[in-house]
Write a structure and sequence with these properties.
Elements lengths: L6 H67 L4 H106 L1
Helix pairs in contact: 1-2
Keywords: Coiled coil
Length: 184
């Protein structure tokens, strides 16, 4: 039963519950955003690795071109240039292998960390959802009790007002009788 006394109370409780649910949604959206960002980082690793590898290969090509120029402009330098070229190729191959292994390791570690975060945040969100559900239930019970108390108080106030009106009517009748007695 809703009346003029309980409507503001009910509205206040509904607003509080809406605020609680919005906070819960904000937490979920925050975790979803973090997961999306983590996925974006993993997705960008392949293109970053590829771009860096192309940069190393381009540097190797530039050095080869330089060595070709040195070799063609300096007769008799073929053995030394070939030795430099071979050393460069070995270093570049070593660099590319280490680079690839580093990215693979980083990607694996990141994926493991992301999975651990997803598991933990999933458990955490589930626990929060359970707690919010309990909070909402308790909140609704408090609302019901509050509305019931206000309705009871409202009923008592109405009864008191009725009694006051009866007393006022009786006082008025007594006053009228007294005036009649005095006038006679």
């Amino acid at each position: 039963m809703t009346n003029a006394y309980t409507t503001p109370i009910t509205t206040a409780f509904e607003m509080q519950r809406a605020s609680i649910k919005q906070s819960q949604q904000a937490v979920q959206q925050s975790i979803d955003f973090q997961q999306s960002m983590s996925d974006a980082i993993v997705d960008s690793l392949d293109s970053t690795e590829s771009a860096q590898q192309r940069g190393v290969e381009m540097s190797q090509t530039l050095v080869h071109s330089y060595l070709d120029a040195v070799e063609s402009s300096m007769p008799g330098s073929s053995a030394a240039v070939e030795e430099l070229r071979s050393a460069l190729d070995e270093q570049v191959e070593f660099l590319i292998e280490n680079h690839s292994e580093s990215f693979d390791t980083f990607e694996d570690e990141w994926a493991e960390g992301t999975q651990a975060f997803d598991d933990l945040s999933g458990d955490w969100v589930s626990a929060i959802d359970d707690q919010v559900d309990l909070l909402i239930e308790a909140h609704e019970e408090v609302e019901d009790q509050s509305v019931e108390a206000v309705e009871e108080m409202s009923s008592q106030v109405e009864n008191l007002q009725d009694q006051l009106e009866e007393v006022q009517e009786q006082v008025k009748e007594v006053q009228e009788e007294a005036v009649d007695v005095v006038e006679e």
